[in-house]
Design brief:
CATH architecture of the largest domain: Alpha-Beta Barrel
CATH superfamily of the largest domain: Metal-dependent hydrolases
Bound molecules: zinc ion
Structural class: alpha/beta
CATH class of the largest domain: Alpha Beta
Number of domains: 2
CATH topology of the largest domain: TIM Barrel
Oligomer: single chain
Number of helices: 12
Shape: globular
Length: about 425
Amino acid sequence: MKHAPGTTLISNGRLVDGIGGPPVADAAVIVAEGRIVYAGRKDAAPAVPPDARSIDARGGTIMPGLIEAHFHPTYFNVAKLEDLDIKYPVEYVTLLAAHNARLALECGYTAARSGGSLFNIDVWLKRAIENDVVSGPRLAASGREICGVGGLMDWNPDFRKIGMEGLVLLVNGPDEARAAVRKLVKDGVEWVKTYPTGDAAAPDTNDHHTLCMTFDEMHACVATAHNHGLKVTGHCRATEGIKNALRAGYDTLEHGTFMDDEALDLLLTRNTPVVPALYFEKVSVERGPEFGLPQPVIDGHQETLEAGAESARRILQHGGRLGMGGDYGFAWNPHGDYAKELSFFADYVGLSPLQVITCATRTGAEIMGRAHELGTLETGKLADVLVVDGDVIADIRALEDRRFIAVMQNGIVRSGSAAAEH
Ligand SMILES: [Zn+2]
């Protein structure tokens, strides 16, 4: 990815650096050759060259670019689960994914970890973004997901003879789990996304208390992935599925919904980050009737919402780590709404805006395995910076409202009101 040449001075704003400390009033951030060379009080900042570009934060906020930790670039605002893999051919979904990536960047998300993709689209989307072919968040790719046969993601009936090939690798037993991960290694993914448990979306045979993979299958995934330098995550709702994932050595958990004390202890001992992705549950309850979701599905989402919020609170209270991300890409939870997750965590779950932003920046970078170069505004890091026209600590909605002066990657202003000037 190219970077902005020369020096840029961002000033006249409060610095929220992503590390989690109190904001710094009247701050300056200096970017040189795409990297941060200073972030702190303006009166202590070094001089910049006379030809430096200048961005006026207008009394707003200077903060790290947001990181979406559970991004499905190939989910194209579908109204039905089965549309995810059979409505359009891969060629068209690839174009839709590029559109979604651009939108995410315009929403202030300068990096994202994929939560699974149709075929290998996210692997190649990542490459296109890195090579400046299209614009979007820096990606960590997952490719196809892994699920047990008959599990949550195995929904096409056998008489159609189409399997689930585009979206999921279906496995029976540890040997097939190993084979699936090996296939993904060759595909070029960085994360292996698995389905240890079901979900409220499938109340008949794979609800949120159902297991969709065995411990042995999960452990085989982890051993194979780690051998090849890949990381593993999983859709974990049911309590036993959470414990299986933690004992198998998962690198992160998606959702982590129904956690008992033992599960929380295991999680905290391993310091495994969790991406609750909870706004989806709330919006599924609120807008489900409008989109024809059956009542048992809506009831399941309500149960998930309450348990998930309680687990998220406990994880953070006990010093655990949360990433911010969501299953955006459904008709009732469309792409572009990503930062509603952040307002939701402040309003409904009860985190402070500063905690939410730290989760959405620093922890996101830790989850991506790129904390050394992303997620906070510190000297030496890549200049992925958000300049917000508003005080995000006083009003976190400024993020979902996209009140952006600048969305920067490597110091390049990609979006926001200053984009036209740079
Ligand atoms: Zn997901």
